[in-house]
Amino acid sequence: MVFNYIVPCLFGLEGLCADELKMMGASNVCAYDGRVAFSGDEELLAKANINLRTGERVLILLGSFKAESFDDLFEGVKALPLENYITKDSAFPVKGHSIRSKLFSIPDCQKIIKKAAVERLKSKYHLAYFPETGNKVQLQFSIINDVASIMIDTSGIALHKRGYRPQGNAAPLRETLAAAMVKLAHYKAAIPLWDPFCGSGTIAIEAAMYSANMAPGLHRRFDGERLPFINSSAWQHARADALDAISLRECDITATDIDPQAIELTRLNAQRAGVAKLIKTDVLPVKAMHSDTPRGMIICNPPYGERLSDSAHCAELYKEMGTVFARLDNWKYFVITSHEQFELYFGKRADKKRKLYNGMIKCDLYQYFK
Questions:
Q1: Residues of 24-35 as b/e, b for ≥16 C-beta within 10 angstroms?
Q2: Nearest to 224 by CA among 35, 20, 7
Q3: Which of 157, 186, 274, 365 could form a disulfide with 354 if both were Cys (CB 3.0 to 4.6 A apart)?
Q4: Could you give the CA distance from residue 282 to residue 279 in angstroms, rounded to a whole number?
């Protein structure tokens, strides 16, 4: 069976996510603000959930329609073939969001969609009551510019929650963003990589998983595995293929931090991710960074002054980074921060900047090609 899908992603990652899906064999791939649409069968559904590094979840699109009133919303949902996806005993909760639309009350939209779904299923199953004691089919809605999209969530827990980081440090970097930074840096296993502000180790771990071609969702479960209309063999095949694709090649990844607790957390997380042998860790301040390696790259997420430290401290830290990084001849640097004066304090204009979002914080990825 071929479905239409939507993959939400962090703003700025749409192109990377689209490229990943194309490599998996997706068709009709279209990237737009914070989302990627595509088509494919249930094998692709499983493959996308298990292998996507930059997407947040995989949603089956049931239909889209104009919804400027609650009547529009009710009739639009009622017209959808929900009986093809929801059985007589399925639980079908509703959640979603509305942006720049006349229907802005989320609780009211939830009630209308639920009511419309019940009416549709009543007419098809000839039942007056639905116990909702069976497997969950999570209905998700998105209303943007008065256009409603009704979807089924196949991921459950968001895809950025790989499972190796049950707890982060005080300002964790989302795993999908770390993976995107590694991709944007065009990291290769043969090139030394160093994160001097490793925190909970996310960048180093995502780089190691990428180097080893290790699927980020290989060791977790998804809501789609319990959907009655998806063949379980699709998930078995996708997991088997992901296991066969792993190649623990030799690489040179270093994760350091001034905080001993951060280093211990990085080690624990790397063990959970199965890449501890690929990452060297050490307690080290930035000013002590040194390498005789003729080339390499730094990918890092230093403090922004948003949560961990004040702006004045960040200014001094960025000046120190500029001095230390300059000593590493022929190394490339990729630094993400929301601090608008980063280049001024770092002492060098970036060769390229890319706007990204770390959660709700608007940032720039400053890229230096040396």
A1: bebeebebeebb
A2: 7
A3: 365
A4: 10
Residue 230's DSSP bridge partners are none
Token pair of 162 as six digits: 């790989």
Q: CA-to-CA distance for 172 and 175, rounded, in angstroms?
A: 9
96 with 106: CB under 8 angstroms?
yes
Looking up tokens 């982060």 gives 168
> CA-CA distance, 111 to 88, in Å (whole number)?
20
Tokens for 356, please give them: 């990204």
Asked if 58 and 140 count as a contact pair (C-beta separation under 8 A), the reply is no
Q: Are strands 59-66 and 352-358 parallel, antiparallel or unpaired?
A: unpaired
Cβ neighbourhood burial of 163 (10 Å; 0-12, 13-18, 19+): middle
- Give how far Cα 354 sits from Cα of 135, 167, 289, Å: 42, 28, 26
- From CA 252, how far away is CA 250, in angstroms rounded? 7
CA distances from 230 to 15, 42, 153, 292, 302 (A): 28, 7, 13, 53, 43
- Residue 1: the pLDDT is 85
**pTM of the complete model:** 0.94
Q: Which residues of the chain have pLDDT under 50?
A: 308
The pLDDT tens digits of the residues spanning 266-296 come to 999 999 999 999 999 999 999 999 998 989 9
90-108 pLDDT, tens digit each: 999 999 999 999 999 999 9
Calpha distance 18→29 (Å, rounded): 6
Q: What is the pLDDT of residue 88?
A: 96
The pLDDT of residue 238 = 98
Q: 354 and 364 in contact (C-beta within 8 Å)? A: yes
3-state secondary structure 237-256: HHHHHHHHHCCCCCCCEEEE
Measured CA to CA, the distance from residue 252 to residue 274 in angstroms comes to 16
The whole-number pLDDT of residue 161 equals 95
Q: How many CB atoms lie within 10 A of CB 77?
A: 26
Whole-number Å distance between alpha carbons of 202 and 78: 43
| pLDDT score for 61 | 98
Q: Are 254 and 297 spatial neighbours (Cβ–Cβ below 8 Å)?
A: no
Cα–Cα dist 60/216, whole Å = 21
